[in-house]
Amino acid sequence: MTTYRIGEAAELLGVSVDTVRRWADAGRLDSVRDEHGHRSIAGTDLAAFARSLADEPDSASRRSSARNRMRGIVTAITRDAVMAQVDIQAGPFRVVSLMSREAVDDLGLEVGSVAVAVIKSTTVLVERGDDR
């Protein structure tokens, strides 16, 4: 069975190590300690917890069929006469969106503002995340 140390779990969930420790201490996330006192989390438990986080309601979200919402900070905007490129840093992920300049202006987006990237796709490529 795959297990993860607290730091690995934090990286995968996009939160701090302290946040994962608090979740474990509060009983929200199952963890076990080894003979040296180090915590580990079973991969299946971490996956279930990650799913539960995705299911938690986001008060800022609108009703939508899209399930993939990544909240982050706008790090760059490149505009031309018609189109714009908006870069969002959402945890460890950089999301780049191409949209009309008018949409960027209507949303009032600027570097430093909070934005939510809503991703709806019929094709998602998946690559293995480890070295196996």
Q: Strand-residue fraction?
A: 25-35%
Classification by helices and strands: alpha+beta
Instruction: Provide the residue-averaged pLDDT.
Output: 84
Distance between the termini: 15 Å
Major sheet size, sense and barrel closure? 4 strands, antiparallel
> Helices and strands, in N-to-C order?
EHHEEHEEEHE
- The best one-word shape is elongated
* Strand order in space, largest sheet: 6-5-4-7
Q: Give the strand tally.
A: 7
Rg calculated over all Cα atoms? 18 Å
- Report the total helices: 4
Uncertain stretches: none
Secondary structure: helix percent: 25-40%
Give a brief rundown of this model.
With 132 residues, the chain is α+β, with helices and mostly antiparallel strands.
Name some characteristics of this structure.
single chain, 132 residues, alpha+beta, four-stranded antiparallel β-sheet, three-stranded antiparallel β-sheet, 4 helices, 28% helix
Structure characterization notes:
There is one protein chain. The chain has 132 residues and is of the alpha+beta class. It contains 4 helices and 7 strands. Strands 6-5-4-7 form a 4-stranded antiparallel sheet. Strands 1-3-2 form a 3-stranded antiparallel sheet. Strand 2 and strand 3 form a beta hairpin. Helix 1 (6-13) crosses helix 2 (17-25). The radius of gyration is 18 Å and the shape is elongated. The mean pLDDT is 84.
Secondary-structure blueprint:
Layout: E1 3-5, H1 6-13, H2 17-25, E2 32-33, E3 39-42, H3 43-55, E4 68-79, E5 83-90, E6 93-100, H4 101-107, E7 114-119
Antiparallel strand pairs: 1-3, 2-3, 4-5, 4-7, 5-6
Helix pairs in contact: 1-2
